[in-house]
Amino acid sequence: MDHLQKAVSKHNTDIILAQEPLVRDGKIAGIPLHWSTWMSKNSKAAIILPNSSLHSTVLSTTDNAIAVTITLQGKPCSLISAYSSPLADIEPALSDIQSIISSVAGENFLAGTDLNGHHTSWGYSDNDNRGRAIEDFVNSQSLVILNEPDAPSVLHSNGTVGWPNLTIASSSEISQLTSCEVLQEETMSHHQYIRIQINSARNTIAFRRFKTKYGGHRPFIEKIKQLAHNSIVQIKTQDNIIDLDNTIEKIHNEIIEACKKSYKIKKTGNCQTPSLVDPRNQIS
Question: Which part of the chain is the Endonuclease/exonuclease/phosphatase domain (predicted)?
Answer without folding.
Answer: 79-194
